[in-house]
Amino acid sequence: MHPIAERYLRKDALPFLWCPGCGNGTILGAAIRAIDELDIIDEIALVGGIGCSGWIPTYINADVMHTLHGRALPCATGLKMSDPRRKVIVFTGDGDCLGIGGNHFIHAARRNLDITVVMVNNQIYGMTGGQVAPTTPSMAKTSTSPSGNPELPFDACELAKGSGATYIARWTAGHPRQLRRAIKEAISHEGFAFVEVLTQCPTQAGRIMHGTADPATLLDMLKSNSVTISAAKKRSPQELRGKFLIGTLLKDRKKPEFSKSYFQTAMKAGDSSGN
Amino acid sequence: MVTITIDEHYCKGCGLCIHYCPKSVLDKSNRMNAKGYSIPCAVTPERCSKCGTCELICPELAITVKESGT
């Protein structure tokens, strides 16, 4: 096992439960390397949702909360407010974060709560057998859309931006170096930091949507459908249709941060009432 | 001299390391682990540039690239 794993993982929880070639392991690797470079293992508090990505924190030897489906963000909110010194990092999936958890997502972003949300996007509900998700591409075949998805998907980063997030980045599981850097920036950012990671899902999205379970083929497909911001400037709207914009999409938007402003206003209220 | 170690206890034979190695150092071997996964091996370790891509992409953190003698 790689030395970084020896240092940071819970040995008794191994091996990883994910399918061969799943991007979740690569994303976990990028996250622990980011945590290692920032040297914050004693300050972090990890929260996982329900879904394959929600297992990421359970393998890390740190304080971890594995929460109910869609409720990673309210749990993370409570956790952060109980100890604002903690660096709270949430690992959630596209279904957990934008489906049942959609409401909590927009409010956590609106509040600009100082947490990092890593949303692993496989464009499907993978763990439960490949059902259509809020991020499933239009006309894609899934187990609950066998004739093609009749809906249009969310752009999670646009949703984060509209809701008020102050740091937004998107990469794929095939960009481990950039992803590590983005997670570092997100953790260091004071405010709601959202990192979307597009990932291959060999067993569900791979077989059902793309007709292959080969991880390298699927990851290559994701990478070729991703365009960096600088490359996108040189392309026409037609060329960009169906492509994902990757890179740091938003940074340094200045807004009050919730855990600070909440206690400031609460203290003021306490003073004015004579307590 | 570079030593590329693949922990066959954790490797799931996904092939990502083989595919993304820029120097084509790795390839499938005849080795199968106890779980039936086909484990890759370094066929041309002398071509390794220590870029670390295999280590970064491996979803099991099963591959390690080390400078021999360290």
Describe this structure in words.
The complex is a heterodimer of chains A (275) and B (70). With 275 residues, chain A is an alpha/beta fold. Chain A has one domain (3-272): 3-Layer(aba) Sandwich (Rossmann fold), CATH 3.40.50.970. Chain A is built from 12 helices and 8 strands. Chain A has helices spanning 3-8, 23-38, 72-82, 94-100, 102-110, 156-163, 176-188, 202-210, 215-224, 229-232, 237-240, 258-272; strands at residues 44-48, 63-66, 87-93, 115-121, 167-172, 193-198, 226-228, 244-250. Chain B has 70 residues and is α+β, with helices and mostly antiparallel strands. Chain B has one domain (2-67): Alpha-Beta Plaits. In chain B, the strands form 2 sheets. Chain B has a two-stranded antiparallel sheet. A two-stranded antiparallel sheet of chain B has the order 2-3. In chain B, a hairpin with a 5-residue loop joins β2 (26-32) and β3. Chain A binds chain B through residues 1-5, 9, 14-16, 18-26, 28-30, 33, 174, 176-177, 180, 202, 214-216, 219-220, and chain B through 7, 9-10, 12-16, 18-20, 37, 55-64.
Short synopsis of the structure:
With 275 residues, chain A is of the alpha/beta class. Chain A contains twelve helices and eight strands. Helix content of chain A is 41%, strand content 16%.
Number of helices, counting only DSSP H or I runs of 4 residues or more of chain B: 2
The total count of strands of chain B amounts to 4
Look at the structure and give the mean pLDDT of chain B.
95
In CATH, the homologous superfamily of chain A goes by the name Thiamin diphosphate (ThDP)-binding fold, Pyr/PP domains
Poorly predicted tracts of residues of chain A:
none
Oligomer type: heterodimer
Order of helices and strands of chain B: EHEEHE
Largest sheet of chain A: 8 strands, mixed
Strand order, biggest sheet of chain B? Answer: 1-4
Instruction: Please report the first level of CATH classification, the CATH class of chain B.
Output: Alpha Beta
Distance between the termini of chain B: 10 Å
List segments of chain B where confidence is low: pLDDT < 50 over at least 5 consecutive residues.
Answer: none
Q: What's the CATH C level of chain A?
A: Alpha Beta
Class derived from helix and strand content of chain A: alpha/beta
The SS-based structural class of chain B is alpha+beta
